[in-house]
Structure formats: C-alpha cells, structure tokens
User: What shape does this take?
Amino acid sequence: MSKVSVYDIKGNVVADTELNDSIWGIEPNTSVMHTMVVNYLANQRLGTQSTLTRTEVSGGGKKPWRQKGTGHARQGSIRSPQWTHGGIALGPKPRSYRFTVNKKTRRLAMKSALSSKLAENEVVVVDNISFDEIKTKNVVSMLSALGAEGKTLIVMPASDEKVIKSARNIPGVKTTLVNTLNVYDILNCNKFVVAADAVTKIEEVYC
Assistant: This one.
C-alpha cells in the first residue's frame, strides 16, 4: 500500500492515507493508455463535414451539347465534377468516428494512468473540496496552497456547483466527477487533485 499525505484546502497536512497498489501502484501500460486517448479523441469528433455531390447541386438537367460533331468532348451535365460549380467527387459526408474499447482494456488503462500520476508525484489528496460561495479566488488560493498551478484536474465524488463554477474560468483547470473520469484528462494534467471521498469511490469501482 502506498502512503500519501492528505491536505486541507489551505495546504496543511491533516492526515495520511494508504492507496491500493492494485490501482495506484501497477506498472503503467503505455499501449493501452494510448489506445484510450485515441478512443477519447475520436469520440469527440463530430464528423459533420459534408460536400455536395453532382446529384445535390442545382442545375445541369440539360445535356450541354449534342454527343457528336461539335469538336468538344462529350458531356452529359454541366454539374459533373470536372465543371466549375459542379458536384464534388468522393467528398466527405457525415459519419461517425466512434469506436469501442473492451472493458478489460479500459480498466487497465485507467489503472495505468492513475499509477503513472502517483509515480510522478502528481497526485494531491484533499480531505474535503468545498466552498461557502461561488468565487474564483477560492479555487485559485486552494491550488496555490497545494502547489498545483498550471494544468490541473480536480476530481470530486459528487457534483458541487460552487466548486465547478468557481473553477471554470481558470485557464488549464478542469473539474470532473469519479463517474466521468477518463484517461485523457488524467494524462493531460500536471496535477491530479482528488478529494479523499473520491479516492474511496475510485478504489470501489476499480478494485
């Protein structure tokens, strides 16, 4: 079991806690983490780009000239792809880029991401992340006290509007819940600030 310090929002050590090595202490598997990052980014793509084919552009119902005897190449429509203002040949159409990853791979990738953060001393456990009012200054002072300036992921056990709204205007700071935690966000942050209750929930889910 790995032992880490638990801080309060003012940066004072208030306790110690042990983290389950089966989640926080495994050898990170870079291959599965890469797979989950690619999966996350692919699933964010909208795939809504669309071009008009020759059947969708207006005009071109009449054959521009007769088939033979004009000296021109034969043409059936002025909306063929080779014409200016014609349709696009083989252009993009709306599609989905989504693909699925099996459960075993997802679990291993999550454990690998959490273990890599702990190994790099980028995990900060806080006893309770809560504020009395919605104020950006509260989150800024908390992160400053915890030494978590820059790209930071704040993980909470349950939705707290005061914390979420206080943090949303700070560049590089993102809040998330245990049930929406993903590998991309974990790897994309410099500091992983997690509430003690959220640690318990993570271990319940991935043990």
Observations:
- DSSP finds seven helices and six strands in the chain.
- Residues 40 and 54 are 35 Å apart (CA to CA).
- The chain has a mean pLDDT of 94.
- Helices lie at 21-24, 30-44, 103-119, 136-146, 161-167, 183-187, 196-206.
